[in-house]
Amino acid sequence: VQLQASGGGLVQAGGSLKLSCAASEGTFSNDNMAWFRQAPGKELNFVAGISRGGGLKKYEDSVKGRFTISRDSAENTVYLQMNSLKPEDTAVYYCAARAPSYRSTASSVWDYWGQGTQVTVSS
Questions:
Q1: Which residue has the higher pLDDT, 19 or 73?
Q2: Which end of the chain is less enclosed by CB atoms within 10 A, N or C?
């Protein structure tokens, strides 16, 4: 499986962005999926995860109520809708596929990664 993340950009605080992650090769329709992010000088952190069927989701505390993860199995794509963005959301965002659980917050247990897309939120 090869993943392609897109949708990042520069936005003002309070604005919105929608990230997409599509499989360029293979399919992840039977896999748990997640988004991680890495801010400058910081470690890679879990943002949100979604189960194979899309019915179960987990969010990191700081994004609850602002971000929504979803998936379209027919389009082989997972999304991250980000609203009410804050400067501290500035990071490179990565999608990941195939872990034992959609709740897996350790990056080491995810098998496949997209190339990352930059999100910059100005104050």
A1: 19
A2: C
